[in-house]
């Protein structure tokens, strides 16, 4: 007989793994000392462990391996073979698609003959501009004439080189452009000249490339692909197009496009204030709000852009379709809901790691409406630097009960025999409609890291659920009825659904966290297998 550490050494695994297999009923010890709880194993258990390890290498889950002890093993091999064949087909299709895409990119880049250069802008400059929504870049000369006439009347000195500011990051609809000239020195434009504005370009890393004026849109498409393949890069300011007139030519044939970028995780020129310095600043701020503070009330997402200057009330722009914070409720006396509170000048996000995150904001009145510009570091999207723009919807003094979602939980019990019993977590899932057992990511399948471990549906309409981390767990008792788990304390009712894939039933249960309760987001799912 071997002690657990001796068996672990022979099997080239850990005692922790053997204890875990024991808890699942996969590899039980031959004898447990009732006084010391020491586990003892026979030599036969080495073969059993090797069999489990071999099945895992073939792609079987521990739940499936456990089920093989009581069900027809041949059926499991048949199903797994079918899964792997489908995965092989899918992988083959992806390889083919990748080859075709790579060939297309190579052909397109050669056609455009773009020499994309990563560099650093040497200095900032001031650009006077007139902002327009244009169908195309043709016939912009009239706007340039209007701009130069206005600057001449104000006796403002400028360089006579045409520049176009591109306030867009997408190639759809009318183009949001600024017809610009570079000022020789910083100049304030009187409010009476409300068509002419001044913008200061930022000093940052940037991408530059040169193309013909007839191929600007194709050049931008190429640039977007360049950024997409560098996930840690993102645009952080407006693009500028500098037009060069060919010698003896009547029109500008060559255009240099400059796009400022932020490199996540690298040495960035853009300043980043530390959390400590922000909290030191906030210590001197008042602890109470004032009645009538413009911040208080509900704010609705109006745009998501790389920088504040790109926002245009006449052309809403969104880098993404889904937002964790599509609404913000700024409560009196800096009240907190979900993971959100605020301080003067900052939105405060309380992260799971314990340390809060601060997003700086500013508020401006545009066309009679208040807009909040929030400088965001999006940790879910490669730490991208973004600006979320929120429109003020009302000035109500909200409470927690006003904000959160409440489900109906007073249902009569109706038994569902198909789910009665104990279920063990299989994975976490964000897209139920496209679920595939052989396409689960390492993050979604990290069993030890998943918070919801087990759920048992009892025939009397109660549940026993195990939640927890690696260091500690907790048991929760709730109620259920057909199709729903009923949490009468929190007043939520997660739905469950059985989904059959290749002959195996997977139980999908909605995970109604704060994202649902306060963010009104569509719930993700925990996926379970019957034990």
Report what the structure shows.
With 531 residues, the protein is α+β, with helices and mostly antiparallel strands. The protein folds into five domains: 2-57, Orthogonal Bundle (Multidrug-efflux Transporter Regulator, Chain: A, Domain 2), CATH 1.10.1660.10; 69-110; 117-263, Regulatory factor, effector binding domain (Multidrug-efflux Transporter 1 Regulator Bmrr, Chain A); 275-403, no CATH class; 421-530, Lipocalin (Beta Barrel). The chain contains ten helices and 27 strands. The chain has helices spanning 4-11, 15-24, 44-57, 62-67, 73-112, 141-153, 216-228, 275-282, 400-403, 514-517; strands spanning 2-3, 31-32, 39-41, 117-120, 126-134, 158-166, 175-183, 196-200, 205-212, 233-235, 239-245, 252-263, 297-305, 327-330, 340-343, 346-350, 356-366, 369-378, 384-394, 421-429, 452-457, 462-468, 473-481, 484-486, 496-501, 504-511, 524-530. The strands form four sheets. Strands 4, 5, 6, 7, 8, 9, 10, 11 and 12 form a nine-stranded antiparallel sheet that branches. Strands 24-23-22-21-20-27-26-25 form an eight-stranded antiparallel sheet, with no helix packed on it. Helix 1 (4-11) crosses helix 2. It is elongated. The two termini are 29 Å apart. Residues 267-271 have low confidence and may be disordered.
